[in-house]
Amino acid sequence: MNICVIGSGYVGLVTGACFAEFGVQVCCADNDAEKVARLQQGEVPIYEPGLDEIVDRNLRQGRLSFTTDTADAVRHSLVVFIAVPTPPLPDGSTDLSAVESVAREIGRTMDGYKVIVTKSTVPVGTGDKVRGWVAEELRRTGRVAGFSVASNPEFLREGAALGDFMRPDRVVIGADDEQATAILKDLYRPLYLIETPVVITDLRTAELTKYAANAFLATKISFINEVANLCERVGADVHAIARAMGLDRRIGPKFLHAGPGFGGSCFPKDTRSIAHFARHSGDAFEIVEAVVRVNARQRERMVDKVVDALDGDLRDRTLGILGLAFKPETDDMREAPSVDIIEALIERGAHIRAYDPQAMPHAVKLLPQIVPCQDAYEACEGADGLVIITEWNQFRMLDLNRAKELLRHPVIVDLRNIYDPGAMRAAGFRYVCVGR
Ligand SMILES: NC(=O)c1ccc[n+]([C@@H]2O[C@H](COP(=O)([O-])OP(=O)(O)OC[C@H]3O[C@@H](n4cnc5c(N)ncnc54)[C@H](O)[C@@H]3O)[C@@H](O)[C@H]2O)c1
């Protein structure tokens, strides 16, 4: 089967490379000519563990290609995936302009039956809009071609994207006609063989499923952060509570880690989007609206923690920061808690020395005031305190004696609870963490 994926970012590139790995003929299209030129050379422009290998292999074996010519990619494909960005607008709604422009281009150029699939996360009803945009362009250009529109939301996690794509918890296929469903089931057949559950449903249900899942996960995070804040007021330990809660199989241990709150390219925008379209449907989604507020306040609380740890005054104090990406194992800085936290610290007078294993090139553009460091220890040099914002594995076993020698004051603010409070205090640190 020939397919194309329009948009070669975190989702599109992983989707294209993984389908190629299953033996499908895949063309990835993107309107960023520089990105396409790099990809054609086998150079992967993002950090995603294992992705460069499968891109390189499938490129060399001729199953994967890259182009800026979307029209050509569409003409040669039975299935066309749309994996372009759907960023938030200031009111929380979703900017569908990239989806619209791709849908119109498909309509202008398709020359036979296509299954047009939104993999981008899109508000309920977008599939119907895509159908309308494609039909309008067909009419306008005086051509007749059959097509189906389907929704196949993506649940991969950055940093673990290949495993999530190839061994997903489930695949969701939403379509309003049987032909599209049959073609997509056939495309995902390699996953049936490893017995991946496939949820077949209608278009709108599939679209909403993605938001419901992300909103629920975000709720777990904001919930445990509220528990952590309560722990701090009453003298309890959120770590033990999260463990005890998580051992209950009805709750499960994941997404119960207290910290600076969620960030990244999905949870912040998807929670705001579902809250927005719920209100437009006639009623507020109260829980999600609270989750969004709690998450914003959590970042402010983290700033207060750092200020308190430095005795209330950051003027001309230097802070070492470890971890800037929104989570470990990615270079993605979109809506990373580190950005808001660092900007607030700088506003209060702090100087920042920072290190992240992968995100430095993006981080220095977003935070030009920081001093970029080569490793964790360089970030400690001469700092009045160290703040751990993202829990990369390499920060879990720091040489604490070396860190203490390099720091001007032995202060560690651990926003991810990766160290044991008792052990840190015994090691001579003023140690501040979250909810313990
Ligand atoms: N990143 C994730 O972890 C994740 C997970 C699940 C779902 N999603 C959803 O998938 C979608 C894409 O997210 P992403 O993180 O891959 O975005 P991204 O920004 O990494 O990639 C998008 C790509 O689309 C290209 N593009 C933009 N407009 C285009 C156009 N008109 N024609 C061709 N190419 C175009 C961009 O150049 C870019 O390479 C979003 O809707 C997002 O919510 C993302």
User: What percentage of residues falls in helices of 4 or more residues?
Assistant: 40-55%
Category by helix and strand content = alpha/beta
- The shape is elongated
Arithmetic mean pLDDT: 97
Query: Count of DSSP E strands?
Result: 14
Please characterize this protein's 3D structure.
With about 425 residues, the chain is an alpha/beta fold. The strands form two sheets. Strands 3-2-1-4-5-6-7-8 form an eight-stranded mixed β-sheet, sandwiched between helices. The model has no long low-confidence stretch (mean pLDDT about 95). It has helices at about 10-20, 35-40, 50-60, 70-75, 95-110, 125-140, 160-165, 180-185, 190-195, 205-235, 240-245, 265-280, 285-310, 335-345, 360-365, 375-380, 400-405, 420-425; strands spanning about 1-5, 25-30, 65, 80, 115-120, 145-150, 170-175, 200, 320, 350-355, 370, 385-390, 410-415, 430. It has 18 helices and 14 strands. α1 crosses α3 (about 50-60) and α10 (about 205-235) packs parallel to α13.
Break the fold down into its secondary structure elements and pairings:
Blueprint: E1 2-6, H1 10-21, E2 25-29, H2 33-40, H3 51-60, E3 64-67, H4 70-75, E4 79-82, H5 97-109, E5 114-118, H6 126-140, E6 147-151, H7 161-166, E7 171-175, H8 178-187, H9 189-193, E8 198-201, H10 203-234, H11 238-246, H12 267-280, H13 286-309, E9 318-322, H14 337-347, E10 351-355, H15 360-366, E11 371-372, H16 376-380, E12 385-388, H17 400-406, E13 411-414, H18 421-426, E14 430-432
Parallel strand pairs: 1-2, 1-4, 2-3, 4-5, 5-6, 7-8, 9-10, 9-12, 10-11, 12-13, 13-14
Antiparallel strand pairs: 6-7
This protein binds nicotinamide-adenine-dinucleotide.
